[in-house]
Amino acid sequence: MVRQAIALFFLAPLVGEYLLGNTPVTDVGSLFLFAPMYGGGALLIREVARRTGRDWAAIVPFAAAYALLEEGPIDMMLWNPAYGGFDLAAVYSETYVPALGTSVQLLQDVLTMHPVWSICVPIAIVEAFCRERTQPWLGKAGLPVVAVVFAAGSAALCAMQIASTGFVASAGQLGWAGAAVAGLVALGFWLGRRPVPRRDGVAPAPAVVGVAAFGATSLVWCREFLPDGVPQPAVAAGWCVLVAAAVALVFRWCRSAGWGAPHRLALAAGALVTYVWVGWFHARDMDIPRTTALLSTIGYAIAVAALLLAAFKRASAHRI
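User: That's the sequence. What structure does it adopt?
Assistant: Structure tokens below.
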């Protein structure tokens, strides 16, 4: 199972940073900077869930906790008004909440990007290659080693952010973020121990699940293309409706007869394909040279197609 652990360790940052377009493919060295946090976090989440006999009902809240931890105490993007050289204070001004020191829409972005793409999608894809998908991958020594790697990598990135920007969040901001992270972890442990009741009905074909996942995740990113003048509080409310509907639909499907490995992979595949087109636009926003962005997008699309074809072949054979 070491191969699966290594694959997840590197796939998480490849999806979360490179496929999204945050980091150009020419900056290969940064993969080893991001992997301890992204990959270490994904591995810890999966291992804790699997070792305690829990499934996706626990992994999803754990992933949300990771999102707040990364963009909160680690790199403090939630509160830094000039993070990454962008005027985030102006971009998110319409939904800013003074008591939190951040905006509702920025929180929504964080709670979309990292739980879905940085954590859940890589886990689902790598697990598709496993006959026993719930089996832990790390030994007794492996889990604490990964925990130390995650903590050290996260601390290093935090120190680099502070050194480069000089920004440090307030104690109150760090406090509410820490409380939210702890609450989400507790929620994951609680939800994960509750049996999921089955329902009458048959799950749709994996292709339908994949198309739905692609459509829903693409809609989330289509906010970038709305015309000026659209009230952002209304957009934020629309996000809540979309996410609630998507969660309810997936919960309904996964309780239906016939739901299995190909369906879980289809969910991840639909979301992963969304990042292919999103990455092209995001790379342009990050001032990555257009030729580099275009070639990267083409290369990523080919790599994603090959990865998903191999994963679906294995998932169809397992069907568990």
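Strands lie at 96-97, 102-103.
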